[in-house]
Every structure is written in structure tokens, then in C-alpha cells.
Amino acid sequence: MPQFDYDLFVIGGGSGGVRAGRLAAGMGKRVGVAEEYRFGGTCVIRGCVPKKLMVYASHFSEVFEDAAGFGWQVGKSSFDWKTFIAAKDKEIARLEGLYRKGLDSNNAELVDSRAVLTGPNEIKILDSGKTVTAERILIATGGAPNPLRSLEGHELCISSNEAFHLAEQPSSIVIKGGGYIAVEFACIFAGLGTETTLVYRGDHILRGFDLDLSRNLTEEMGKKGIRVIVQQNLAKVEQQDAGKCVTLDNGEKIVADEVMLAVGRLPNTEGLGLETAGLATDEIGAIRVDEYSRTNLPHILAVGDVTNRVALTPVAIHEAMCLIETEYKGNPTSPDHDLIPTAVFSQPEIGTVGMPEDEACREYSEVDVYLARFRPMKHTLSGRDEKMTMKIVVDADSSRVLGVHILGPDAGEMAQTLGIALKMGATKQDFDRTMAVHPTAAEELVTMYTPTYRVSGGRRVDG
Ligand code: NDP
Q1: Nearest residue (CA) to ligand 1, atom 22
Q2: Which of 28, 197, 336, 340 could tie 227 with a disulfide, CB 3.0–4.6 Å?
Q3: Domain boundary among 263, 284, 318
Q4: DSSP conformational letter for 27
């Protein structure tokens, strides 16, 4: 008779939890995975996937406009929010089914309930009231939008969670924040025809990204009619007859159908029983883990956004796979968080890997910057006034490419392949001796032979 009910019990059926549960169950371990909402987690249910579908939907307005330059007569077009939301929901339900099936076909037990810790090896399933035991427990509960309770009127605002399920398309929206979610949704709503204002507290949106990308994206967003207000916060939000009235710190008032908060996400650890179990957390409630995703308690592990390392789906999946190697295959493997390629699905899109210029200049004494800004070929005929940016940041001493930053169509796709090159330690000479794929925008990456400028000891020297 085994000592525990399960070999592994996973709390949270998102990207990290499902991957760990499925792999462990596939190895013959007795696995339970509890999920209180829908299997698939933030990424599949109310994050990356539905967001990308919305990006596609919103982009059609420009595709129809651009077609005229290529000789197409596109008739009157209109967008129906309800039709799109229904189609999107159908696809999300299909994907959720695949997540469930993946667990089920590997003989993991799906537990459709909230589960909380009641001890180092003990979990309570809230729906049934049953208490179960497990040799190892994995916490993969993810994160949730910061509700910004300090903001007067925050309860009138929506987050990304609600943005996916609004009954009607808002005719106007104010979005607070300047990170991934704020920027992506500003572009989505604007593309769908919603009058959009983005309010960011800092100087440049997308802090942490290369400044040229931030500046150029702000300019492109402006051309699409998005009002980007920087160095401002919301003082309060009030309900009025005409809509929700936002007052900025400078006293300006903006009335909109919806106000969306996109000011970061917080780890989902409230009410999980962490104190009862004695689990250590950090100042924002994230579970503290070591390099092997182990908590301070033996046999309790944590992966994904709940650990507040790098809040990205592929990272959670990678952490889960490393954990399986470490815990069940006798091959201690710590996740590699270095040089993570990433995309922001703004319009135009951002794709980036490695260090932005300012960071490189703080770490390296001589940095060569190769910068190009040009009109993509498609827009020579479409007539659209939209420019693409490409930037390569190189350590002048070793010639190693430290970062590549792209703003333009398919930048995310390019970042994926560039990620491999940078991970392999590619030098600028490697880029130079790579043949161009013609005619593409990406060929610019291997044909910028002369630095645009050098930054030496923190000072720019024009080339
Ligand atoms: P981000 O951390 O990207 O951005 C948060 C934004 O909110 C920042 O601009 C920040 O400003 C601002 N902010 C934070 N607190 C306050 C406050 N109290 N008042 C005013 N502004 C505030 O978070 P998101 O919510 O956009 O996204 C969460 C995470 O989800 C991302 O970090 C990313 O890891 C992931 N994600 C990834 C996507 C992708 O891969 N394409 C898409 C969507 C999300 P400041 O810069 O000044 O700190």
C-alpha cells in the first residue's frame, strides 16, 4: 500500500502545471491535477491565444485598406464583435479539450476544483471537501491582473480577463499601463475601430525594451489614431451618464465606454494555504524557489508565474520540463532564463532577443549599434505610412551580438530564429557571412555591414 494517494499532485492546470502533470503521468506516476477554472490556464483561456486571435481580427481593417494599392476593390467592410467572440470562444473550448485530453490519455486524474494546501504533503479538494496526500506537490497557479485597489473607482475598470468577454465592443476605451498587455490591447481595440487612449506613468512605453523600439512604436501607434499619454497617472475613475470618466493627475478628464487596467499581474497565492504549510513567499506573494524550482519545504515545488521569475508561457513550460528531469529522471536540470526571445503583439509587432542598447552600454565599454528604419516593401504599393525598425547591438571587443530588436511585420517570427543564433553565441561576422533571403525584410539583419554608431564609455560616436 503506497504511503501517499498520489506521487505528484499539481495545483493549477495552466501551461506549467499541465506539462509537468502530463509528463509525470506519462512516466507512470500517479498524478492528480486540480484546476478551479478551466484547464489551459491564462495562456489558453484568457491570455496569449485569445489575444493573438484578437490581433488577427483587428488587423483586417488595415489589410482591407492596403488592398486598394494592389488593385483590389474591397467593398464596404464591417466588424461584428459578437460573431468574432463566439468564434474565438469555440476555438478556446477546443484547445481546452486538448489540454484535458492530454492529461487524461496519460492517465492523470483531472480534478475540477480549487485545491489548497493543508500541510507539506496534504491537499484539500474544496468541491468535495476531501483531503488527499501526495509525495510531491507542485504549485503552478499562475498569476492574475493587479486590480489596483488603491485607485479610486478601480471597481469600475476592466482587466484583460474581462476584455475577452465584453458583451459589446466599446466605442471608446482608456487603457492604463505601458507594458505588454496595455500596448497589445490598445492596438487591438484601435484596429477594431474603438477610440483608444493609453495612459502610461513613465516617459516611454514598454520599459525594459530597446528605446528605439519604444519610441518608434509610439509613433506608429499615433499614426493609427491611438492617443498615447505619457508621464500621467489616473487620479480617479467615476461613473457618469455618458460613460466612465477618467481624471488624470493633470486634471484632464476623458470619458470612455470602458477603462482597462493593465498594470502588471500578481502571483495567485492568496488563500492557497501557504501559511498553513509554512511556505516562503516574497514581498508580492510569489513563491520563493531555488534553481530547481524547489520551495523551502521538501517535496513542494513551484513553476510559472506564481514564482515571479519570467512571466511567459514558454518559460513556465520549460521550468516544468526541467522539474521532471530533476525530480523523476535523476538528471538535475535548472531552467535557463538567459536570452529569452519575446514578442509584443502590438501593431506593428515587436520581436526581440538579448540586451537593449542602454543595458549593453552599461555592461560593455564599446558597443557597436547597427540601426535601420525603412518602409517595408508591401507599403510601397499600399501607400501606408508605416516604418520598420531593425537594430543589432554588438560588443565591439568580441564582436558578439548582444541583442537584436525588431519592430515590424512578423518580428515575433524573426525573434524566434534569432534566439537560436544568439543562444549559440553568434558574432557579427556570423551575421555578415549569412546569405540574405531576398526579397524579405529580414535580409536587412545580414546586410548591415557598417555600424551606424559606436557607444564608447557610455558616449555615442557617430560612424
Ligand atoms: P508589464 O509588467 O509588462 O507592465 C506593467 C505596466 O504597468 C508597466 O508599464 C508599469 O509601469 C505599469 N504599472 C505597474 N504598476 C503601476 C501603477 N501602480 N500605476 C501605474 N502604472 C503601473 O505587465 P502586463 O500587465 O502588461 O503583463 C504582465 C506580464 O504578462 C508581462 O510582464 C509579460 O511577462 C506577460 N505577457 C506577455 C505577453 C507576450 O509574451 N506577448 C503578452 C501579455 C503579457 P512601469 O514600466 O513604470 O513599471
Answers
A1: 263
A2: 197
A3: 263
A4: T
User: Pocket of ligand 1, candidates 181, 188, 229: which has the most ligand atoms within 8 Å of its Cβ, to mutate?
Assistant: 181
CB atoms within 10 A of CB 268: 23
Same domain, yes or no: 10 and 140: yes
Closest-CA residue to 236 (of 227, 246, 226)? 246
Number of separate domains in the chain: 3
- Of all helices (H) and strands (E), which one includes residue 207? none
The SS3 of residue 304 is helix
| Structural domain for 458, as ranges | 342-462
Q: Which helix (H) or strand (E) holds 415?
A: helix 411-423
Cα angle: 373, vertex 374, 375; to 5 degrees: 145
Q: What is the DSSP string of 331-382?
A: -------SS--EEE--SS-EEEEE--HHHHHHH-SEEEEEEEEE--THHHHH
Q: What is the pLDDT of residues 261-285, one digit of tens each?
A: 999 999 999 999 999 999 999 999 9
Count Cβ atoms below 10 Å from residue 11 Cβ, excluding itself. 28
Residues 353 and 440 in one domain: yes
Query: In 200-242, where do the E strands start and end?
Result: 227-229, 234-240
Q: Is 106 exposed, middle or buried (0-12, 13-18, 19+ CB in 10 A)?
A: middle
The per-residue pLDDT for range 135-185, each reduced to its tens digit, is 999 999 999 999 999 999 999 999 999 999 999 999 999 999 999 999 999
The answer, as to whether pTM is greater than 0.85, is yes
What does DSSP assign to residue 47?
S
Q: How far is the CA of 237 from the centre of ligand 1 (A)?
A: 20
Q: What number does the ligand 1 atom closest to the CA of 342 have?
A: 40
In angstroms, the CA 448 to CA 427 distance is 13
